[in-house]
Q: What sequence folds into this?
C-alpha cells in the first residue's frame, strides 16, 4: 500500500522526495515545492489525503530541524508520513490554507520548536505567553533566569 | 371591608393630634410590615428553593446548619439554620464598587428596584380587607408599579461599567417591556368581564359567580398566558436570559455584592410572590376557599371561608404558583433572546388580542342568553 | 484553498468582548475573544495556553514509565484513554505483543471511561444551554463508574492504571459482577436523560440547526470523535483501524442524522454521545463475558529502552483521535514526544461554526464540541 502511494508521488515529483527502502515515510530535503506536493496529496484521486492528523516539529541538533506530517485519508483509509528535514534558518511553506488544522499546529511548532513557516496567515505564539523568549523544545534551550521580573526557580530542592 | 390604612386611622383616631401625623403613622406601619414580609419571604423562599432544587436533583441540599442545635430533621428537611446563615453572610459581605463605575447610579439602582416591588405590595390584598389601600384603579396600579423595576435594572447594568452587565440590562429591559403587553392584555380581559379595576370587586365577582379561570375557555387560556408572561417578567428560567449564568455570568448583577446584591435578591423573590398573588386573586378566586369553585359542595363547607382562613387560602394558592416557578427553573433549559422575543410578539400578543376579542363576544352572548 | 480574514480590524458598530479565562462556561481556563455586533457574533478567536504545563518538555527528561501519570493529567476526564493511547505507542515502539487478558481489561476500562466522559459532556452541554438538573443526574451516575475505578486501582480521577506492557493490577474479585450491575442500573437512566433533556422542546430549539459543521470543513479542520460523527461521518478508529481487541466485538458507530434539524448541528453532536454510551455498554457486556484468564504482568518490561526509531500511534478517545508521535534515540527517555490532542483540533473549528450566530449560540457550540482544556494546553 505504502509503495503504491510512494510510486504515485515519485512519478510526479521525481527529484524532490526521497524514500529509503526500509522506512515507512517519505523525506523532503528541499521544501521549496512542498506546497505543490501538498496540494497534489489532497487533490489526486488515488491519494486523497484529506485529513492531516498531526504535525510535529522536532530539533535534530547541529542546526537542523525537522517536521513530520501524518496524513490519513478518510475516504481511501490509507496513511502516509511525510518528513521535512532542513537547516533551522530555512522557511517551510505553510500548508494552513490546504489543511486548516495546520494553522494551529504550525503555530505550535513555531512556538515550541522554533520552526519558521512562510505565508502563514496568523503566525504568533499559541501555548506560551507572547513575550516568552526562546523555544523550549529546542535541544540547546536554556531555562531563563527571569520571566517579566519573576525569578524562575532553578533550585528545586525546596519542592520536595 | 376597607383597607388597612383606613382601619388603622379609625382605631387611633381617639388620639387628639393633627390628622396628618396620624395618617403618616398609619402609612409607615403597614410599610414596615410589608418590608418585613418581603424579607421573611426571601429568607424562606431561598431555603424552599434550595430544597426543591435538591429534591429534583436527587440530593439533599443544605443539611448541616441548625439553630440552637435544632436542624429540622435528618431525612430531608434539615439545615433550617441555613436561612439565617445566608442572611448574615449576605449582609456582612464586603461591598465592592468597581473603580470606574458610576457610583451614584450604582448606589440608587438597587433601591429603585426594591421600591418598585414594595410599592406594588400596596395594591396587593392578603385577605378580605387586608390590603394597604384598596384603590379603584388597583389592577392598573399593580401593572404600572411592577414595571418600575426595569429602570433600576438599566441603571444597574449601565453604572457597573461592565460589558456583561450592559448586555444583561439591555436584554432585561427588552424582555420586561415586551412582556408587559401580554400581561396587560390578559388582565384587561378580567376588567372587561368584571367591569371594575378594583381588587375587592374582582374577588367579589368571583365569589358571586365562579373562579375566573373556570369562567370561560378564553379566561382559561388567559391564565396560562398571564402566568408564562409573568415568569418571563420576573426573569426566571426558562426566560432568565438577562442573568443567564452560563452566558453572562450574572448579567446586570455581576458587579454588585453584599447588601446591594441581597436587595436584588429580595426584590426578585418579592416579585415572584407578587405575581403569584396577583394570579391567585385575579384568576384563582383570591381568598375564597377551593370549595367555592362549583356549587356542588354543601353550604356547611362555606365555613372554610372567612377573614383569617382567607389569608391561608390565598397564600397556599400563591405559594403553589411560586413552587411551579421553581419547578420550571430546575427543569427547563433557557431560551435564546430572539426566541424569547418571538414567543412574546408573535405568540402571546396575537393570542391575547384574539382572546380579548372572543371574550367580549362570549360575554355578549352569555348576557343575551341569561 | 481558503482565505483567512484579518480579524484585528473591527468596524464602528462592533465591540470586542473577552469571554474568560474565568467564565462559567468556557470549560476551564479558555479565553474567547469575541467580536460582536450587539447580540450577533462576527468572529470568535480562542486564545489558549492558560493551562500549559510543559507536558512535552517534561517528557524529554522523564523515563517512559514516568510519563504515564503525566498523560493521565492531560485529559483528566478520560485518563484511562490517555494512558492507554500512550502505552500503545510505546508498545508499538518496543514491538510488544500483549496477553489477551490485558487487552480485554483495557477495553473494559476504556469503555467505562468513555461512558463517564460522555456523561460529563452530556450534562455540561445541558448546563450550557441552561438546564441544571440533568447535569447533577449525570454526575450521580458517573460516581458509580468512579466507584468501580476506585475498586480497580484505588484512584477516582487519575488512575495510572494502564502501563506500557500491561496494567497495574488485575481485576479485583466481583468487579465483573459489579460492572454488570452498573450496566443494568445505567441503561434505563439514558432514557431518563432523553426525557428530560434530549426531547425537551426548548433544548431542541436551542441546539438544533445551531452551529452546523459541514463534514468536509470538519475533516479539513481535523475534527474527530463524536464531533465529526455528528456531522455524518462514520470515522471511528475502533471500527476503521481496530486496535487492541475491538475487532472481536459487535457494535455500531452512531452518526448524526439531522433528526431535529440539519446534519452536523449541536443537537446531533450531543445525541451522538448519548447513543455512544449505549454502544459502549454493548461492548462492555461482550468484553465482560468473554474475558480470558491470564497474567496481566506477563510481558511487563523491567526497563523500557526502545530501539532508535519513530512511531505514530492513534487511539479513539472520548474526544476523538489521540495521536502520540514518539522519536526514540535509543535511550530510556524519549527524544521527542508530541501528543496530537483531539480537543485542540476540535476547538480550532469554533470560529467556523459560531461566527454569525448569537452570543448564546457560541456557548452552545463550544459546549457541543466537548473540550477539555488540560488536553488542549498540555
A:
Amino acid at each position: 500500500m505504502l509503495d503504491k502511494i510512494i510510486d504515485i508521488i515519485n512519478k510526479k515529483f521525481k527529484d524532490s522526495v526521497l524514500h529509503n527502502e526500509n522506512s515507512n515515510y517519505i523525506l523532503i530535503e528541499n521544501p521549496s515545492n512542498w506546497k505543490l506536493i501538498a496540494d497534489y496529496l489532497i487533490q489526486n484521486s488515488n491519494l486523497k489525503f484529506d485529513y492531516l492528523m498531526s504535525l510535529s516539529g522536532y530539533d535534530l541538533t547541529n542546526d537542523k530541524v525537522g517536521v513530520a506530517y501524518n496524513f490519513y485519508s478518510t475516504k481511501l483509509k490509507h496513511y502516509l508520513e511525510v518528513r521535512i528535514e532542513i537547516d533551522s534558518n530555512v522557511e517551510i511553506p505553510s500548508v494552513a490554507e490546504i489543511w486548516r488544522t495546520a494553522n494551529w499546529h504550525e503555530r505550535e511548532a513555531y512556538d515550541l520548536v522554533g520552526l519558521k513557516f512562510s505565508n502563514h496567515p496568523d503566525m504568533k505564539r499559541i501555548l506560551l505567553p507572547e513575550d516568552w523568549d526562546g523555544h523550549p523544545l529546542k535541544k540547546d534551550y536554556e531555562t531563563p533566569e527571569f520571566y517579566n521580573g519573576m525569578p524562575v526557580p532553578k533550585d528545586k530542592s525546596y519542592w520536595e | 371591608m376597607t383597607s388597612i390604612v383606613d382601619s388603622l386611622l379609625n382605631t387611633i383616631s381617639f388620639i387628639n393630634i393633627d390628622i396628618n401625623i396620624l395618617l403618616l403613622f398609619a402609612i409607615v406601619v403597614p410599610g414596615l410590615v410589608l418590608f418585613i414580609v418581603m424579607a421573611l419571604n426571601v429568607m424562606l423562599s431561598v431555603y424552599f428553593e434550595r430544597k426543591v432544587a435538591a429534591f429534583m436533583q436527587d440530593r439533599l441540599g443544605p443539611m448541616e446548619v441548625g439553630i440552637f442545635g435544632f436542624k429540622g430533621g435528618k431525612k430531608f428537611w434539615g439545615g433550617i439554620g441555613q436561612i439565617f446563615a445566608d442572611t448574615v453572610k449576605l449582609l456582612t459581605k464586603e461591598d465592592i464598587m468597581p473603580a470606574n463605575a458610576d457610583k451614584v447610579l450604582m448606589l440608587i439602582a438597587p433601591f429603585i428596584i426594591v421600591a418598585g416591588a414594595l410599592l406594588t405590595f400596596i395594591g396587593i390584598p392578603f385577605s378580605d380587607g387586608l390590603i394597604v389601600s384598596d384603590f379603584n384603579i388597583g389592577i392598573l396600579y399593580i401593572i404600572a408599579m411592577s414595571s418600575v423595576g426595569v429602570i433600576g435594572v438599566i441603571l444597574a447594568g449601565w453604572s457597573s461599567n461592565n460589558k456583561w452587565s450592559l448586555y444583561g440590562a439591555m436584554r432585561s429591559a427588552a424582555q420586561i417591556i415586551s412582556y408587559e403587553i401580554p400581561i396587560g392584555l390578559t388582565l384587561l380581559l378580567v376588567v372587561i368581564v368584571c367591569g371594575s379595576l378594583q381588587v375587592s370587586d374582582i374577588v367579589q365577582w368571583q365569589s358571586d359567580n365562579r373562579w375566573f379561570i373556570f369562567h370561560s375557555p378564553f379566561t382559561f387560556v388567559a391564565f396560562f398566558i398571564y402566568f408564562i408572561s409573568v415568569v418571563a417578567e420576573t426573569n426566571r428560567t426558562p426566560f432568565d436570559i438577562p442573568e443567564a449564568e452560563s452566558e453572562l455570568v450574572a448579567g446586570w448583577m455581576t458587579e454588585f455584592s453584599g447588601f446591594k446584591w441581597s436587595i436584588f435578591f429580595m426584590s426578585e423573590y418579592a416579585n415572584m410572590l407578587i405575581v403569584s398573588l396577583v394570579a391567585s386573586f385575579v384568576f384563582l378566586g383570591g381568598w375564597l376557599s377551593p370549595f367555592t369553585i362549583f356549587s356542588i359542595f354543601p353550604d356547611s363547607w362555606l365555613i372554610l371561608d372567612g377573614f383569617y382562613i382567607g389569608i391561608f387560602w390565598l397564600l397556599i394558592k400563591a405559594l403553589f404558583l411560586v413552587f411551579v416557578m421553581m419547578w420550571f427553573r430546575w427543569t427547563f433549559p433557557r431560551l435564546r433572546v430572539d426566541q424569547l422575543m418571538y414567543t412574546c410578539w408573535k405568540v402571546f400578543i396575537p393570542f391575547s388580542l384574539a382572546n380579548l376579542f372572543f371574550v367580549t363576544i362570549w360575554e355578549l352572548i352569555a348576557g343575551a342568553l341569561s | 484553498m481558503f482565505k483567512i480574514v484579518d480579524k484585528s480590524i473591527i468596524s464602528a458598530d462592533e465591540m470586542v468582548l473577552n469571554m474568560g479565562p474565568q467564565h462559567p462556561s468556557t470549560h476551564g481556563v479558555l479565553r474567547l475573544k469575541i467580536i460582536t455586533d450587539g447580540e450577533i457574533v462576527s468572529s470568535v478567536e480562542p486564545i489558549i495556553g492558560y493551562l500549559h504545563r510543559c507536558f512535552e518538555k517534561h517528557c524529554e527528561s522523564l523515563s517512559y514509565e514516568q510519563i504515564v501519570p503525566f498523560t493521565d493529567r492531560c485529559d483528566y476526564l478520560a485518563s484511562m484513554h490517555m494512558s492507554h493511547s500512550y502505552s500503545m505507542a510505546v508498545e508499538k515502539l518496543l514491538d510488544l505483543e500483549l496477553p489477551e487478558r490485558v487487552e480485554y481489561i483495557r477495553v473494559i476500562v476504556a469503555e467505562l471511561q468513555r461512558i463517564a466522559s460522555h456523561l460529563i459532556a452530556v450534562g455540561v452541554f445541558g448546563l450550557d444551554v441552561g438546564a441544571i438538573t440533568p447535569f447533577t443526574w449525570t454526575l450521580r451516575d458517573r460516581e458509580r463508574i468512579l466507584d468501580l475505578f476506585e475498586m480497580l486501582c484505588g484512584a477516582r480521577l487519575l488512575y495510572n492504571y494502564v502501563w506500557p506492557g500491561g496494567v497495574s493490577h488485575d481485576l479485583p474479585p466481583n468487579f465483573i459482577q459489579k460492572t454488570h450491575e452498573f450496566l443494568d442500573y445505567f441503561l434505563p437512566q439514558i432514557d431518563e436523560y432523553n426525557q428530560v433533556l434530549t426531547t425537551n422542546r426548548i433544548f431542541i430549539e436551542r441546539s438544533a440547526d445551531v452551529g452546523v459543521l459541514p463534514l468536509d470543513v470538519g475533516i479539513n479542520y481535523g475534527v474527530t470523535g463524536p464531533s465529526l460523527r455528528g456531522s455524518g461521518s462514520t470515522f471511528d478508529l475502533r471500527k476503521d483501524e481496530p486496535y487492541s481487541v475491538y475487532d472481536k466485538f459487535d457494535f455500531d458507530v452512531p452518526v448524526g442524522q439531522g433528526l431535529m434539524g440539519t446534519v452536523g448541528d449541536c443537537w446531533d453532536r450531543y445525541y451522538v454521545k448519548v447513543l455512544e454510551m449505549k454502544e459502549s455498554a454493548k461492548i462492555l457486556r461482550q468484553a465482560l463475558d468473554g474475558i480470558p484468564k491470564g497474567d496481566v504482568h506477563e510481558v511487563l518490561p523491567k526497563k523500557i529502552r526502545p530501539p532508535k526509531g519513530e512511531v505514530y500511534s492513534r487511539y479513539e478517545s472520548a474526544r476523538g483521535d489521540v495521536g502520540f508521535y514518539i522519536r526514540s534515540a535509543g535511550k530510556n527517555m524519549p527524544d521527542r514526544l508530541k501528543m496530537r490532542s483531539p480537543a485542540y483540533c476540535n476547538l480550532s473549528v469554533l470560529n467556523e461554526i459560531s461566527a454569525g450566530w448569537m452570543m448564546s449560540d457560541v456557548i452552545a457550540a463550544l459546549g457541543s464540541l466537548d473540550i477539555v482544556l488540560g488536553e488542549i494546553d498540555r
